[in-house]
Amino acid sequence: AKRAGGNSYALFEARMDVDVHAQVSLQAELRHAAERGELALFYQPKVDGRGGQIHSVEALLRWYHPQRGLLGPAQFIPLAERFGFITQIGQWVIDEACRQMREWSERGVHIRVAINLSAQQLRDVDLVGRLDRAMRRYGIDPSRLLCEITESVAMEDIEATQRVFEGLARIGVFLSIDDFGTGYSSLSYLRQLPAKQLKIDRGFVQDLETSKDARAIVDAVVQLAHALSLKVVAEGVETEGQRAVLISLGCDELQGYLFARPMPAPDLLRWMLDDAP
Ligand code: C2E
Ligand code: CA
Ligand code: CA
Ligand code: CA
């Protein structure tokens, strides 16, 4: 038995080894993904709760890996964070979102784009400068750019968050608190952040039709947000039933597979021209 145990331990260790090797090679490849043209932004519409129009989209990062195929952010963003180059990737996201907005503008499509910021980007002292320079380079009006920061990241280092939010608000960039309800916000603190938007986490939306508690929470969050002059977006809307409840509770914008999945820029343009009401 001892022997077998020893063997299975060795096997386990060997597997871990493979995994570590895979991670190391993946992060090495990721360092060059942007310059090799393998990164892409997919866009998911935020649909107006009242009229159903599209005023904005969220940019979600993808990696076309030459061997592994299309990878989602969960498969590689943690690596970039751990190995300390999320800021470089974030810079690519900022540039690409601005470039894309410019291209859409030239075709007469004026929509807002939201990008996601990680904890490390929030600690980057040059973040405001980076955004400012990218918007100038492409001639983008700052009010058309939105930055989404998750509630838990925003509350990690409250003073840093406040500094960054104020810097971004000063240059005219809108801020959104993402995945709201999953962290532990001090409500009085929320009041002090110059945010414009609050995104209700998908977890609450999922349970809306079956749980009275989820419904009560969403109801309270919408009221709180509106009292603080914040717009409310619900994410992960997948059913007609969820949509109906969210609209009755006063959600301003809805986002989810019910309307559209995240898609490449050319598909989004086609989707807007074909399906927009
Ligand atoms: P998130 O910001 O909460 O984005 C929403 C996620 O939910 C996206 O996953 C989106 O594809 C997915 N989603 C949208 N509608 C539905 C729906 O109706 N049902 C379900 N089940 N899922 C839905 P994705 O694209 O895999 O992104 C995952 C996370 O990765 C994002 O969560 C965001 O935190 C992060 N992320 C994405 N792009 C970037 C980026 O450029 N930079 C950074 N730092 N993080 C990013
Ligand atoms: Ca987001
Ligand atoms: Ca979210
Ligand atoms: Ca989420």
From TrEMBL:
User: Which classification does the entry list for the species?
Assistant: Bacteria, Pseudomonadati, Pseudomonadota, Betaproteobacteria, Burkholderiales
Q: What is this protein called?
A: Diguanylate cyclase/phosphodiesterase
The EAL domain is annotated at 23-276
